[in-house]
Automatic annotation (TrEMBL):
A Gene Ontology molecular function term of the record: CoA-transferase activity
InterPro entries, per database record: CoA-transferase_III_domain, CoA-Trfase_fam_III, CoA-Trfase_III_dom3_sf, CoA-Trfase_III_dom_1_sf
Pfam families the record matches: CoA_transf_3
Keyword Cell wall biogenesis/degradation appears in the UniProt entry: no
Organism lineage string: Bacteria, Bacillati, Bacillota, Bacilli, Bacillales
Keyword Transferase assigned: yes
Keywords annotated in UniProt: Transferase
Name the record gives this protein: CoA-transferase
Length: 395
């Protein structure tokens, strides 16, 4: 089956999550991704559990659809191999701390001399410029600097880290669409370009409503539990046996909720709750009124009534419940494929369902150095030269 990026070749020098997530998606869409892992131990995520037959499941999750080589680029011969690969590539992506690629001789200005059409993407914690550019930056530091942690958690509580590595994934997503835009430009002009993006910038760009509140009214968004900052009731509530989400996000839905779900029609005319503005201004009282009703029955009772009334709702799942929900499964968001050591493994599926060029799993995450000899043979390296490189611990 045809894939959209089947003619794109990517050299991937990233590790852990942001960069690997980007190149995994490019690979899912058909790109030939060659993952270059450092010699001798490879991607740092290889030491993250859990393990299946001594292979990291964390590594496997973010590195499918790639060919893997293990290469010592600190040695001249190893650097030479990487430069030979660059000559054949459309995209080069790295996540070293700013300045390291210059020391290694693989910075953009150097590589563009070999390949003027190269799209070169750098992912770092804080970006290549600015007063913090030389600082090391992980996802949690980006969550702190972007203000995200101050807006996450319960009201008046301690700052809370988001449950997922949200800035890492934001950076990966930003890299994907930036690379695709640069690739479209290259297809029409032949020109490559440099892409500088950071974990901080990528996650900050997602704070749309929060920045609107600040720029428009000088309001500083704070942690508010599951409640929405401008709409009510739009949040989680306890029930007799758990918690559910209620999304009565406009006046019509609010009135349906009162009349058909909790059967408290008088609340529609209560001056405290007449409009969304009043409901937001009196949120604590509103929460208490709704909670006093919902706590009387179990979650499924209310979810059924909410569905019947056409009011958006959802259970609040644990992660195992989410992955085993029949809707999630029916959408193929959990898939299976074979791994040479792990056997039949499960992974996340493709969120976009494309009718002509769908995502596919063509290969599992590579074993460390699995495709080194194959890739070198494609570069016309002789068997004798490959053996010598192996003996000298270059590959």
């Amino acid at each position: 089956m045809q894939q959209a990026l089947q003619n794109m070749k990517v050299i991937d020098l990233t590790q852990v999550l942001a960069g690997p997530y980007c190149t995994m998606v490019l690979g899912d869409l058909g790109a030939d991704v060659i993952k270059v892992e450092k010699y001798p131990h490879g991607d740092d995520s290889r030491i993250m559990g859990p393990y299946v037959e001594e292979e990291s499941y964390s590594y496997m999750m973010a590195n499918r659809n790639k060919r893997g080589i293990r290469l010592n680029i600190k040695e001249e011969a190893g650097l030479g191999i990487l430069l030979d690969l660059v000559k054949t590539a459309d995209v080069f992506i790295e996540n070293f701390r700013p300045g390291v690629t210059k020391k290694l001789g693989i910075d953009y200005e150097t590589l563009r001399q070999l390949n003027p059409g190269l799209i070169y993407c750098s992912i770092s914690g804080y970006g290549q410029t600015g007063p913090y550019s030389q600082k090391g930056g992980y996802d949690i530091m980006a969550q702190g600097l972007s203000g995200l942690m101050s807006m996450t958690g319960e009201k008046n509580g301690r700052p809370v880290k988001n449950g997922i590595a949200i800035h890492d994934i934001a950076a990966g997503m930003t890299a994907i669409y930036s690379i695709l835009a640069a690739y479209i430009h290259k297809l029409s002009t032949g020109e490559g370009q440099y892409i500088d993006l950071s974990l901080v910038d990528s996650g900050l760009a997602w704070t749309v409503w929060e920045s609107a509140a600040y720029f428009g009214a000088g309001e500083v968004s704070r942690a508010n539990g599951s409640a929405h900052r401008v709409t009510a009731p739009y949040q989680g509530f306890p029930t007799k046996n758990g918690h559910i989400l209620v999304g009565a996000g406009n006046q019509k839905l609010w009135e349906k909720f009162c009349r058909d779900v909790i059967e408290r029609e008088e609340l529609i005319h209560d001056p405290r709750f007449l409009t969304n503005s009043e409901r937001q201004a009196n949120l604590e009282e509103l929460e208490q009124v709704i909670q006093d009703v919902l706590i009387q029955e179990d979650s499924q009772h209310w979810l059924t009534k909410l569905d019947e009334a056409g009011v958006p709702s959802s259970p609040i799942y644990s992660y195992d419940e989410a992955l085993n929900d029949p809707h999630i499964r029916s959408r193929d968001m959990v898939i299976e494929y074979d791994h040479p050591l792990g056997g039949r493994i499960e992974s996340l599926g493709f969120p976009a369902k494309m009718s002509k060029t769908p995502g596919q799993v063509k290969r599992p995450a590579p074993l460390l150095g699995q495709h080194t000899k194959e890739v070198l043979a494609e570069l016309q390296y002789s068997e004798e030269k490959i053996r010598a490189l192996e003996e000298n611990k270059i590959i």
